[in-house]
Amino acid sequence: MPADRKTAIICTNDAWTLYHFRGSLMRALVDRGFDVVAAGPYDRHAELFASMGVRFAHVPMSHAGLNLSEELRTLWHLYRLYRHERPSLVHHYSHKPILWGSLAARLAGIRGIINTVNGLGSTLGDADGLLRLAQPGIVALMRRALKPPVRITFQNREIEAFYIANRLIRPEQATVILGSGIDTDRFSPDGPPPTVDTDETTPRPLRFLMFSRMLWAKGVKEYCRAAEQVGRRCGNGNRPEFLLVGGAAPGNRTAVDPVWLSNPQTIPGEWLMREAARGYVDWRPHQEDMLPLIRSADVIVLPSYYPEGVPRSLLEAMGCAKAIITTDMPGCRDVVDHGVNGLLIRPRNADDLAKAMLWMFDRPDRATAMGRESRRMVTERFSDARVIDQTMAAYAAAGVAV
């Protein structure tokens, strides 16, 4: 590969996320004349990149875990890829690609290195067991990997402040870009009549929806407890509906991609099925296409106390003109103006969540009006076009001609 080839490599730790969350950015780079390579572990979604004019490069990479030989194998594969392609730009998402990709790029002599930090996750946030013991070593490696001229974009200012306070980066390396951007034409209120296997021709009560990875820190238990409180309060006659989407049945009988189940905090399928059997929450496993379910709901809920960037699920819901209930936490509160397009609640507090749900239930017209505000906000602040423009400015600040 010629050294002056205008090549960009976009890397993260699963092909599904690369295609669905970074596809618009890769298309924008293709339009600007780049030869774009998507890099990450191969799965069935890798075949989709060809339709975008993007090549796919397999890089073995575990989503979680600390097996030293596997981590060194990831570093070696990234180094070989970068030495072969000689890209003018590499852009990493998620902590493992950021750490090993930045080290590999530096070793390969690549200068245009950009990393996007979506949140702290378990890598730098709260952790247990071996990961907690390994955190000081991870921090030391990251300080080395992230030295200038590497540039970092953050999805909220709290995470940026954490990196600076812990001397992982210098302030002049950082840029804040809220969210990863969404296609507001696709995620819109318009589309075929939604359905969730119910008769939509008859009046129905307010429908709440939580969709996310099934991790305890996403507030799944709090959602289920709040649904029970509201259900008992309203009785069986006209109580709201509560959908919960994500995770997998016991033994992964629903064939959910293993990457969605690899986090140590993943909630067992047995627990989810028991919760559904109690009759307050309608639980469904991970869905490839959430758009019909989002459109079918009235209020989207994310009671997360996870160290988020800007939750993608909330942006998608806002694009579809939905009211939001979420926690007063970094990332989550960046997309909700309390009382305008949704409600903010205290984290780890099912009582607060139940009160917010009842408020929405008693005021369906206000929920609809909040949804309209969500649509306005996401179009103005979080659209693909806006985020791509900001990302291109970050590339230019790194010395990459875009």
Note the gap between the termini.
20 Å
Number of domains: 2
Number of strands: 13
Question: What is the CATH level 1 assignment of the largest domain?
Answer: Alpha Beta
CATH topology of the largest domain: Rossmann fold
Strand content: 5-15%
CATH-defined architecture of the largest domain: 3-Layer(aba) Sandwich
Order of helices and strands: EHEEHEHEHHEHEEHEHEHEHEEHHH
User: Average pLDDT across residues?
Assistant: 90
Give helix % range.
40-55%
Q: What class would the helix/strand composition place it in?
A: alpha/beta
Strand arrangement, major sheet: 3-2-1-4-5-6-7
Specify the number of helices.
Answer: 13
Q: What is the global morphology?
A: globular
CATH superfamily of the largest domain: Glycogen Phosphorylase B
- CA-based gyration radius: 21 Å
Low-confidence parts lasting 5 or more residues at pLDDT below 50?
Answer: none
> What composes the largest sheet?
7 strands, parallel
